[in-house]
Every structure is written in C-alpha cells, then in structure tokens.
From TrEMBL:
Family of this protein: Belongs to the BioY family.
Transmembrane segments: 30-48, 55-72, 78-100, 112-138, 150-172
Protein name: Biotin transporter
Keywords per UniProt: Cell membrane, Membrane, Transmembrane, Transmembrane helix, Transport
Range of residues in the leader sequence: none
Record membrane topology: Multi-pass membrane protein
Amino acid sequence: MTTKNLIFTALMTAIIAVLGFVPSIPLPFMPVPIVVQNIGIFLAGILLGRKYGTLSVIVFLLLVAAGLPLLSGGRGSIGSFAGPSAGFLFLYPVVAYLIGLVRDLYYNKINLIILLGATLVIGVLMLDIVGTIIMGMITNLPFTKSITFSLAFIPGDVVKAIIASVVGNILLNHTRFQQLLK
C-alpha cells in the first residue's frame, strides 16, 4: 500500500464518518432508521475501487466497534453489530467491494449508466433486502413483513444512489482526479 492509497482510504473513512453527523430519520414501524451514510459506502466503492473502498469501510466499522460514535445518531459500540442494524453494517463492506468490482472492471469506460446500475442493484436492492431480512431474523419478524419493510428504504436509497453515481462519474472522468489516482 502506497502512502497515496493510505491517504485516500483514510479520507474515505473520514467522509463516511462525517456523513454520520447527519441526523437519521426514525421510522415508527421498524427499529432501523434511514441514514445518509450509505452515500459514503457507495462512494467508497465507486471512487477507490474494490480493494481500498472495502478497506475504508472496514476501518470505519472497526472504529465503530471500538466505541466511537460514528454511526448516524451518535451510535457506536460493539453492540451495534448485534442490534437490528447489524445486517446493514455487515453488508457495508460487501456492497463497497461489489460496487468497486464493477468500477474496476469498467474503469477505462466508466459512465453514469454503469455506476448507477451497479449502485442501484448492489447498493439499493441487495443492501435493503438482505439487510431487512437479517433485521427481521434479529427482531423475530416474519420474512414477508421484513421484505415489506425494505420497501420503506427504496425511495431514499435510490436518491442516494443517484447522488453517489453522479459525484463518482464526475470525479472519475475528471482529468485531475484521474491523475491523482494514478
């Protein structure tokens, strides 16, 4: 790992942490709130690729596990990985890796359609559906109810995916940013 990669990884971890300061939106019918930090998870994969994007998310989660209040709402402890949000937290590195994999495969011909497609399928559908299924298992909700609850996240996460894809597309296709990544 070069110093440049270390700095980019640390910066992405910091961006994800700062997004935790945006207040979460609690939902009255489920224990997992709507958070903005997903944008940072999506951007980690888009901007840094599968290796360093995933590493930045893992470092973020280790900081949360160590007790730093970096999750939305000022939460942070090892207990966060046993609560209703656990499925989402464990999927964060997987999402960053898979979005980063798509970014790495199409790096020379990256465009908004590729980024948005990957972020919608992996970052929205997979994260929301699998995360709410795990939340349902932890909270003893029936499978069908968990899937129904996942629909509450879809509209906001689509907006987050669009934001991350547009920002990622602009940066990845900007010559100065490309020079920084080399």
